[in-house]
Amino acid sequence: MKLLGISGSVTLSSKTWAAVNKAVEAAAQADPELETEVVHLGDFDTVLCDGRNPADYEGETKKIIDLIEEADALIIGTPVYRASLTGALKNVFDLIPNDALRGKAVGFVATGGTYHHYLVIDHQLNPLANYFRAHVVPGGVYVHNGHFTNGIITDEDIEFRLNGLGASTAELTRKLGKEHARVPQPSIQR
């Protein structure tokens, strides 16, 4: 089984990448058979969604779509700008097929400058996962600048919560894998 971590940041030094990577590492420790990968959206030159069939995109846009479709589970993180997820991450959600996340475990991480935006996970990310019929892993983690020192997570509670999110994602993925192997999932057309 494959778990894909996505950092929705496009900046080179990303606190979001650090938090997502920490959760993905915890998932790999919880289930050593889980194949993991973490990608940074800033490394992809994706085009803006223009409404065409997702299968018709090419290049790096097609690559990120394929990575998401091939994953059995995801841990997705975003920095919070203007009380919302990044435009780059929103574009990825617009690009993927409607059934790309169906039946998959999805855990969320959000990062921000202060506690002001801690509800982004509940108010924006969870509803997106629900639209795609994904299974949201309880315990999404909001991390703010005070939890980092020189770009490294130093808050013990946040580390504990990210480890818990990773372990829970691995556990839910394992359980869903057994169930979804028996139940065919209908495809949704755009």
SSE map:
Elements: E1 2-7, H1 15-30, E2 35-40, H2 59-70, E3 73-79, H3 87-95, E4 105-112, H4 120-131, E5 135-136, E6 141-144, E7 148-149, E8 152-153, H5 156-180
Parallel strand pairs: 1-2, 1-3, 3-4, 4-5, 4-6
Antiparallel strand pairs: 7-8
Folded structure, characterized:
This is NADPH-dependent FMN reductase. It is an enzyme of class 1 (oxidoreductase). The protein is α/β, with parallel strands linked by helices and 190 residues long. The chain has one domain: Rossmann fold. The chain is 39% helix and 19% strand. The chain contains five helices and eight strands, in the order E-H-E-H-E-H-E-H-E-E-E-E-H. Strands 1, 2, 3, 4, 5 and 6 form a six-stranded parallel β-sheet that branches.
Relevant CATH superfamily: Flavodoxin domain
Please tally the helical runs, counting DSSP H or I stretches of 4 or more residues: 5
Give the topology string: H per helix, E per strand: EHEHEHEHEEEEH
Rg is 16 Å
Structural class designation: alpha/beta
Q: How is the biggest beta sheet arranged?
A: 6 strands, parallel
The CATH C-level class name:
Alpha Beta
The CATH topology assignment is Rossmann fold
Strand content: 15-25%
The unreliable regions are none
Helix content: 25-40%
Name given to the CATH architecture? 3-Layer(aba) Sandwich
Please indicate the count of domains: 1
